[in-house]
Every structure is written in structure tokens, then in C-alpha cells.
């Protein structure tokens, strides 16, 4: 078997476009019939995904795998760091949590991590026709170059060519590119094939003189200038989207808010809400006023006790109580579900200092953090949310149709019973308590297609839902059912139609690949390989 096509995309800054470029190139190579794998040696992110082999990787690599048309695998991201404090993180190797280390201790651990990286690299190179590598941050971060495994340290060890990408929308693109190149060692500079400029708005002719200067100054080509793709909606690696990008349907929309706590994780769970044309969604950050809403969502957290303390300090506990008194709905996902209970116990100090903390006391459950992490891809259905007693049955034929004498809203309530859900589970908490007798979902269990197990809880009054299922809103039917439960009327749901996150993601990956094919000299980028 001939050696695979390899290329590493490094960026001049965080969010320069590394993830996006690798995803788009993966889709381009897939179109050409090449079996391609994404690869990120080391990722630091709190957005993660469960792989086909039962491990955990950064969500960006799961997106890139989708672009490539392959199942996500732990080899695509052999080292994942999930920050739990400003100076410490959970270390995940080949999909499994192995330790919680301070930054200093992790630096000493890096040779072990590098060995895991190279094991994954060798396996991918023997199994795929192309491997596209994504760097992390910038290769010019001088303080991180010792024992580097994320950027040039890996590129040198694996002998991989590098392209530098920079975001012109930030400003200073020529300084970013020239400065980054200048800060590399001679051997690292020789490894850089050229540049890609990302997110350009305007007349390319006005940029040409700058491109000519850059090529003359560095002796390297600009392989292409990618235009700013308005409305491109792909899973974020870690950072929250700008609020300006959120959908706002106006005063008539269902109002949904969610707090941005310090260790928020898997916030991509809320992407379908941001996309829905009848949802006015808002992230509420520190120091911001908490506005009235129809639905509050508490997302996941990597440090549940610390983030719950933050919520209280920001006034969210009183705001949630007021919200519920006025009939509002509340959803907690994973760490957010744990916050809704009576007590949180971290006896081993897995997310900080060992100890217990009182929860919000809104569901009769208690959570203990255990060292074994639950990692599963899931499918199932919603329970009967309208009654909050969990005593639903499988949806009957024709469920959701409006019968004579019913309103459209009645039909939507019936449709909520049994709406299909797909998602995944990533948590170390074990939750118990009487509220679990009113489950929020029924999930497939074991090899028997008829077997199910309960998940989460719904309050007796039907106002509060807690679940461990990430991706709760992803399936179109589940999204519509949950929005109906939260108060969006049937007419608005009918007007919006189906909001399908998976279809939108696929369409945007194709749009991205089309742009790359139109604006990047792929033959030069991948030379001497033929694509």
C-alpha cells in the first residue's frame, strides 16, 4: 500500500479556521473517492463526542469524520484535555480518562501522551488513503513549544507538510502569517508549504497586491483565499458562537435562555434551538441581566459544583424560582440535570476539591461523582411530558393527528409522547432518587430492540425536565415536541416546519467543500500527490 496523502493545517491564532478547513478538505477528498481520516494530536475542548469504539474525542473531530464519511474513532483525537480549573484538566488518552493533572504535571506527562499520539498516527496511516491533521492554537506560542505535541512538535516527528491558515476578518492577516513564520525554527519554516487566507469579504482584486507582497516576502504561495460564508453553521470546537449569529424571531417567538458558566460543556446541544426560526435564543453571560423567558436550559458542565456556585452568585437561583412560579419550563442536561437535584457529592475530588454541595432542590434526586465515566451513543423516545408521571406507552398509530373536537395544540401534545431522540451520554455522575420514577426518556437498552431503560426525570407538575442525554434537541420530532411542551403553539410549529440539524450540517459541509474547490488551488496544495 502506498503512503497516504498527509497535510497538517496550523493556524496563526485560535479560531483561524483550522477545524473548518480540515472538514472542508475532508469532504473534497471524499468526493474524489479517497478514504480520508481527520486527526488532531491534542485537543483542549469541553465539547466532545462518543466514538464508534466507545471512547471520547473532541467534537470537532467528530464533525470532520462526518465530512469524511467515516465513523468517529478515538484515533482521530488520541489526546483530549478537558479543563476543570484554570490550571488543571482531565486527561483523556485514546478515548478514556486516565488522570486529572495540573498544567505543570501534564507538561511532565507529555512524552507519554506523545507516544499515544504516534500510535494512533501509525494506525491511521496504514488504514487510510489520506490523513488530514489539525493543529491547536498557534505554532508560534513560544511558551508551549517545549515537548510540543499539538503543532510543529508533531509535524516534525511525523514528517508532515504544513499549511498556515489565517482569518482576515480579524484584521492584521499579513502580520499574523509573516510573524508566525518568523517565530518558527529553520526546520519548521521549511516544513510550511504556503498559506490559506480565510473569511475574506469584498473585492479580491483589492487584496492582490498584499498577496503578491506576501509571496515575495516569504517565498511561499498563497494557495487560496476563502470567502466569508455567511450563515455557515457547523459544530463549534469549543468557543461559543457570537450572539449576533443567533436566530432571533422577534417578539412572537418562544423565548429561550441559557447561562454561560465558566466550565460549560457540550453547548452544541443547544444549536437546534439557535437554528429554529420560531425561537428567540440568548446565551446569558456573567454580569448580564437575566431576562424573562418561556424556557431556561441549563447545559452541561465540567465542574458542576463550581458552576452551580457561579449560578447562585449571578442570581440565577432566584431567577429560576421566579421563572417557575410564572409557569415557565426548565430543562437540565447532564451537569445541568445534576444541578436540579437536592445534593451533589464529589467524594474523590474529580472536578475540584472533594466535598458536597446542596443542589437547586427542584428534583428529588442526588448525584455522586464516580471515577468510571459513562460513554454511550443513544437512541430512544420522549416520555409523556404533559403529565410528568412517566406513565406513557408507545405512540399509537396516528398519534399527533388532530382529531375532531381537539385543538391543534392538543395534537402537538399527543405528538410529544414517543418522539424519537438520538444522542449520547458522557458523565461521571450516578444519580438516584424518587424523581427517577417519572423518567424524561425511555432509551434503547441492550441487544433486544424492545428493551428500554429510563433516563432522567420530569417534575410532578410537568414544568421541569432533567436528562443525561446530550443531543436532546437534535432529532426534528423531539425538537418540535419539546418546544410544544415549552409553550410554542402548533401554528408556529407548523409555520416553522421541520428543523433538521443533521441535514443542515450536511448541506453546510457541502457548501464549504464547494467553496474550497472554487477558491483553493488543490493541485498545488497537495502536490506532489495526485488528488
Descriptive key words:
single chain, 531 residues, alpha/beta, Rossmann fold, 6-stranded parallel beta sheet, 6-stranded mixed beta sheet, 26 strands, 31% helix, 27% strand, globular
Give an account of the 3D structure:
Helix content is 31%, strand content 27%. Strand 6 and strand 7 (88-93) form a beta hairpin. The two termini are 16 Å apart. The chain is built from 16 helices and 26 strands. It has two domains: 5-233 and 506-525, P-loop containing nucleotide triphosphate hydrolases (Rossmann fold); 243-498, Class I glutamine amidotransferase (GATase) domain (Rossmann fold), CATH 3.40.50. It has a six-stranded parallel beta sheet with strand order 2-9-1-10-11-12, sandwiched between helices. A six-stranded mixed beta sheet has the order 15-13-16-18-26-25, sandwiched between helices. By secondary structure, it is α/β, with parallel strands linked by helices. Residues 243-249 and 388-415 have low confidence and may be disordered. Helix 1 packs parallel to helix 2 (59-68).
Quick structural gist:
By secondary structure, this protein is of the alpha/beta class.
Poorly predicted segments: 243-249, 388-415
What structural class results from the helix and strand content? alpha/beta
So what's the CATH class of the largest domain?
Answer: Alpha Beta
Largest sheet: 6 strands, parallel
CATH topology of the largest domain: Rossmann fold
**What is the global morphology?**
globular
- CA gyration radius, whole angstroms: 24 Å
* Strand arrangement across the biggest beta sheet: 2-9-1-10-11-12
Helix content: 25-40%
Count of runs of 4 or more consecutive helical residues? 16
**Quantity of strands, as a count:** 26
The portion of residues forming beta strands comes to 25-35%
- How many domains? The number is 2
The overall pLDDT, averaged over residues, is 90
Amino acid at each position: 500500500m502506498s503512503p497516504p496523502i498527509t497535510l497538517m493545517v496550523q493556524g496563526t491564532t485560535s479560531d483561524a479556521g483550522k477545524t473548518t478547513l480540515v472538514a472542508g478538505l475532508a469532504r473534497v477528498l471524499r468526493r474524489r473517492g479517497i478514504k480520508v481520516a481527520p486527526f488532531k494530536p491534542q485537543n483542549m475542548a469541553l465539547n466532545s463526542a462518543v466514538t464508534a469504539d466507545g471512547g471520547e474525542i473532541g467534537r470537532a473531530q467528530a464533525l470532520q469524520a462526518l465530512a469524511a464519511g467515516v465513523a468517529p474513532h478515538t484515533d482521530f483525537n488520541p489526546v483530549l484535555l478537558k479543563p476543570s480549573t484554570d490550571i488543571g484538566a482531565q486527561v483523556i488518552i485514546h478515548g478514556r480518562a486516565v488522570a486529572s493533572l495540573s498544567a505543570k504535571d501534564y507538561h511532565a506527562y507529555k512524552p507519554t501522551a506523545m507516544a499515544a499520539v504516534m500510535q494512533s498516527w501509525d494506525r491511521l496511516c496504514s488504514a487510510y488513503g489520506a490523513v488530514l491533521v489539525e493543529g491547536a492554537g498557534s505554532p508560534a506560542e513560544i511558551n508551549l513549544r517545549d515537548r510540543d505535541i499539538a503543532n510543529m512538535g508533531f509535524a516534525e516527528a511525523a514528517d508532515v507538510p504544513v499549511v498556515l491558515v489565517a482569518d482576515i476578518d480579524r484584521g492584521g492577516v499579513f502580520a499574523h502569517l509573516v510573524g508566525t513564520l518568523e517565530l518558527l525554527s529553520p526546520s519548521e519554516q521549511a516544513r510550511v508549504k504556503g498559506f490559506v487566507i480565510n473569511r475574506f469579504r469584498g473585492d479580491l482584486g483589492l487584496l492582490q497586491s498584499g498577496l503578491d507582497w506576501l509571496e515575495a516576502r516569504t517565498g511561499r504561495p498563497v494557495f487560496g483565499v476563502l470567502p466569508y460564508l455567511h450563515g455557515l453553521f457547523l459544530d463549534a470546537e469549543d468557543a461559543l458562537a457570537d450572539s449576533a449569529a443567533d436566530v432571533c424571531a422577534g417578539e412572537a417567538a418562544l423565548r429561550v435562555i441559557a447561562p454561560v458558566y465558566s466550565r460549560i460543556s457540550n453547548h452544541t446541544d443547544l444549536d437546534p434551538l439557535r437554528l429554529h426560526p420560531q425561537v428567540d435564543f440568548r446565551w446569558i453571560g456573567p454580569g448580564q441581566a437575566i431576562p424573562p423567558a418561556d424556557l431556561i436550559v441549563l447545559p452541561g458542565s465540567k465542574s458542576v459544583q463550581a458552576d452551580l456556585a457561579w449560578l447562585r452568585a449571578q442570581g440565577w437561583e432566584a431567577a429560576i424560582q421566579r421563572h417557575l412560579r410564572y409557569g415557565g419550563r426548565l430543562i437540565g442536561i447532564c451537569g445541568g440535570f445534576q444541578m436540579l437535584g437536592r445534593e451533589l457529592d464529589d467524594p474523590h475530588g474529580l472536578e475540584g476539591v472533594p466535598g458536597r454541595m446542596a443542589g437547586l432542590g427542584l428534583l428529588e434526586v442526588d448525584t455522586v461523582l464516580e471515577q468510571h465515566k459513562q460513554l454511550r451513543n443513544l437512541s430512544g423516545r420522549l416520555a409523556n411530558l404533559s403529565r410528568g408521571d412517566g406513565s406513557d406507552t408507545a405512540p399509537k398509530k396516528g398519534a399527533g393527528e388532530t382529531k375532531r373536537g381537539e385543538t391543534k395544540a392538543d395534537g402537538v401534545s399527543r405528538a410529544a409522547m414517543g418522539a424519537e431522540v438520538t444522542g449520547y451520554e458522557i458523565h461521571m455522575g450516578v444519580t438516584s432518587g424518587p424523581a427517577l420514577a417519572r423518567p424524561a426518556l425511555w432509551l434503547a437498552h441492550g441487544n433486544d430492540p424492545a428493551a428500554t431503560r429510563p433516563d432522567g426525570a420530569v417534575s410532578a407538575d410537568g414544568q421541569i425536565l432533567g436528562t443525561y442525554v446530550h443531543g436532546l434537541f437534535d432529532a426534528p420530532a423531539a425538537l418540535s415536541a419539546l418546544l410544544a411542551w415549552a409553550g410554542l403553539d402548533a401554528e408556529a410549529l407548523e409555520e416553522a416546519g421541520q428543523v433538521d440539524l443533521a441535514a443542515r450540517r450536511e448541506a453546510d459541509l457541502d457548501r464549504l467543500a464547494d467553496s474550497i474547490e472554487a477558491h483553493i488551488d488543490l493541485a498545488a496544495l497537495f502536490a506532489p500527490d495526485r488528488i
